[in-house]
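How it folds:
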Amino acid sequence: MIIAIRSVLFNLAFYISLIIQMILFLPLTLLLPRKKAWIVPKFWARSNLFLQKYIAGTDFVVEGAENLPEGAYICAPKHQSFWDVYAFLSYIPDPVYILKRDLMRIPLFGWYLKKMKMIPVDRGTGIKALHSISGGTQEAIADGRQIMIYPEGTRRAPGAPPAYKYGIVHLYMNLGLPVVPIAHNAGLYWPRRKFMRYPGTVRCRILPPIEPGLDKETFLQRLIEATETACDEFLVQASQDKNPPPMPATAKARLAELKAQQSNTTETVAETTPRA
């Protein structure tokens, strides 16, 4: 009951803060040069993290910030929640998001996206969408910006089988930039399509960059392996916390798989170890 009340209070505070900040800071955002205008969305991101910590009881930790390169690169976060849309803004200096074109049409919110020169894409247009992404990223790269793309395209529940799309491969092969994977377990604490916000600590890890020059299959395999291995680690850690968050069916299934894999590995080691 207490968690439900705190969730309601956080959601109210989150959306009220969003509306007030969008209205209050719009003139400042429009007047400032784009790079300096980042002060507004980054303040919004920090205020969200503050509200979530002190109202919902959800803190976070980020490891591996030293893995972020200088200048332009592709940032590939796991997408489990709305939380991962803004949580990394303090770590990425000048990000450009690849996002649905419909978001650009939202009053106020869409104006901010246009000011920050985000890259809109029409979903479901296939090759045309890939070409529009490539064209939109060239200007961003020339300006030293960081390309933000969610490899799976849409939010996935914690523990769900990976479903990485071709878009990330297309960017990697065509832009010649390193790709920085980011793993986390935010979906356990801010579940998709639910208003509940659970207390605990979101674990995040910025992984070492995957350098350009690999073939498609090798790159995708490394991206998936690095990201999903870290996500599995965080899932296990969350399940072992003193007060773990509720585990969705996908997380329970994945935890069972990981436990079975560990048991099989232990048995194999025991069978191959020579007896004294």
In short: The radius of gyration is 20 Å.
